[in-house]
Specification:
Layout: H1 2-19, H2 23-39, H3 41-48, H4 54-65, H5 71-82, H6 89-104, E1 106-113, H7 119-133, E2 136-143, E3 150-155, E4 158-163, H8 164-178
Parallel strand pairs: 1-2
Antiparallel strand pairs: 1-3, 3-4
Helix pairs in contact: 1-6, 2-6, 4-5
Length: about 180
């Protein structure tokens, strides 16, 4: 149910941002809020605490973020606090980003490798995958030594496993089936 609620809030925010031509700015501001709250345990605790007064929470949010966010994003935060839905902010940001990317024709891709990719490798991968998908890609990279070699690509909810670890696991499964 929280996914549907998050989608409605994200849709409303997206429509306002689109109308005011602030899609990118709103996304950046939401990312800033999410990372700030998640990085500061005390702030997160106060914002999510059920016994702290709504007005006090809104005053704190206003004081912390007033200089960094526009009125639409501030209004969203206040509405979430008023309706005790502060806990779905990250879901709203994810939904908003998905909508904004769809509107801009961008696909977020997460690439996991055993070693960090060089910028040239990242750009080549973005170009090749982008041509295959006929989309503009925004690549985020992760490093996971357990990958051993190769790459693991996540596009939306799809995974493409070209890792050595994945190949070894599939080979092991084939051996079990062959017995």
């Amino acid at each position: 149910m929280s996914e549907a609620v998050a989608e409605r809030y994200a849709r409303a925010l997206f429509e306002v941002a689109k109308e005011r031509e602030t899609i990118d700015a709103v996304e950046e501001q939401c990312q800033l809020i999410g990372s700030t709250i998640n990085q500061h345990r005390e702030l997160k605790s106060v914002i999510s605490h059920p016994q702290i007064n709504f007005e006090d929470k809104k005053a704190i949010i206003e004081k912390v973020f007033k200089k960094d966010i526009n009125q639409e994003v501030m209004n969203l935060l206040k509405v979430l606090i008023d309706h005790r839905r502060e806990g779905i902010f990250d879901e709203i940001v994810d939904e908003y980003t998905t909508m904004a990317n769809h509107y801009r024709g961008i696909v977020d891709v997460v690439v996991t490798t055993a070693k960090p990719l060089k910028e040239k490798e990242k750009n080549k991968l973005a170009t090749e995958l982008g041509q295959t998908l006929n989309k503009k890609l925004r690549i985020k990279t992760k490093v996971d030594p357990e990958v051993i070699g190769g790459i693991l690509v996540r596009i939306g909810n799809r995974m493409y496993d070209g890792t050595m670890a994945g190949k070894l696991a599939r080979f092991q499964q084939e051996l079990k089936v062959a017995r």
